[in-house]
Amino acid sequence: MRSAPLASLDPDEGDANLDHDAVFNGLLLAVIGRRRLLVLVGEDQGERVSLLGRLARHIEIDGSLVMTVTSSPGVTVEDLVEVAGRTYLGPTSATLEFDQLVDTLEDRLERAGTGILMVEDADKLSLETLRDLVDLTGEVSGSGRFMQVLVAGGPVLEQRLDQADLLPTLRAVGTLYRLDSRPQPPSRGFPTNRPQQAEPGRGHQPQRGVVRMAEERDVRLNPDRPPPLLRTMEGRQDFRAQASPYRHQAEPSRRGTAVWFGIAGLCLAAAGGVYFLGDRNLDDLRSAAQELTGRAPNRTVEVPAPLPGAPVDGPSIPAEPLPPPQASTGPVGQPAADPGDVALAVPPPPPPQTPEMDGTGPEAAEPAVQGPKAPTEPVTPRAKENAPLLADLVEKAERQIDERQFVTPKGDNAMETIDAIVALDPEHPSAGMLKARMVESYRVWGRNAERRGEWEYARLYYQRALRIDPADQQVTNLLDSLDNRRRGGRVARDDGPRNAAKPTPARAERAPPKAEKPPARPAPAPAEEDVATRILRTLPRETTPESPPADEPPLPTLRP
């Protein structure tokens, strides 16, 4: 037979007692490197089966031929191949003879390109069977295909390989890993699979997924012949069912191989090339920024803002009466009359499902939040280097704030964009301005919710503001005193926007005289609702605690 070229990976026999992730990555690299013989040694059988199941699933995704079998004392290589092959092919292989089964497996190996045979409890095999398994890795098909073999067992397996004089072959064409049986640290965030102890009084229970497949085959084909003692996994699905929950984790090797360093270098080179090229279109800049910050690019659909006065979907709630027009003719900076005083004369409406924003509530009388525009010229050395990227990120963050995407959805919100700005330039002044604008927006929404009597929404808005800026003392005081205001049925005095200009003495002298406040008019009786409006008002509307209601008014963009 022809011998295929050997892989050039170094054996890892010196790395003892590695954790699960390191062993998994090492075995995966050995399979990719076409190592012929792989050995896994571990004391806990449950951990070995869990790791083998995870590795089998990962390899099988690429279309490779993966066969699994659990051995028993006294079996031969032919028995292992026959049981593993029939388990892999399924019920269609019941009528095939052994030679036909081998031809079918060779054909599958030719079409798949690569194949591996995983043998659990290999420490129970005889020395001759271990030598035959190693010889199986040296058989090459006409097109150069060969079957890799992974044997797993307890610590005795390494001694059995030494007794069979196979350690020199293992060093030349294979690799060996020792699995640490100590519990994994809880910081990984994954549960650890441990074999469950049998309950007292129930006696010995067979391992789940293990059947005597050879016994059924012999009983069916040769009724007079006693069946051999051979155990195998009950189908590939049951073998996979014992795998560890690490199946969704596919992180790179901790040893930092040249492959991962090469990929990282290509990413950095691509990001630098995008910056230095003359054609810096918007899509390329956004892709480079996402690669620098470690986030995948997100494509969002621009949704036009609703026109002023347009109807809002959801239950219709009677608006609170506005104060008389004469009440707003006072000097500049003097707060207008609280509309809650007039609303007390009207019977309170039923508790709303969502905050009602129809342009006539207290939000319409709330002064707009003003603030300086984020600087367009770079002010720090790092900002000068990444000026195009920072300008695009600042524009994106302002757009997301206008669309009320503060912390949601994940991957397309203002907080993540601000984090990208800080990653490029920690001293960029626009980061603090944008955060202050979001905190002020939540504060205004919370005060409006208090005026409407929606205390839970007010608490939610204040908590979201503190998630953005935990050191904001004004929002902290509002949240701490919310329960007291709720029990007293009053709303705290609003000092207006934090950046509102206070009137100077000269302005106060030139201000028109304060008009006398006319007596409060009786509140108009609520209009009679038709049947359709009453039905719509009773329908619930879904809101998520991670994002503000869609009908809250956006605050204006920071402009001078």
TrEMBL record:
Biased composition (Pro residues): 546-560
Keyword terms: Membrane, TPR repeat, Transmembrane, Transmembrane helix
TPR repeats: 439-472
Composition bias type Low complexity, residue spans: 335-345
Region of interest called Disordered, as start-end residue ranges on this chain: 178-210, 296-382, 479-560
Transmembrane segments: 258-277
Extent of Basic and acidic residues compositional bias: 482-497, 507-519
Residue ranges of domain ORC1/DEAH AAA+ ATPase in the record: 35-161
GO molecular function, one term: ATP hydrolysis activity
InterPro entries membership: AAA_22, TPR-like_helical_dom_sf, TPR_rpt
Pfam families in the record: AAA_22 (PF13401)
UniProt name for this protein: ORC1/DEAH AAA+ ATPase domain-containing protein
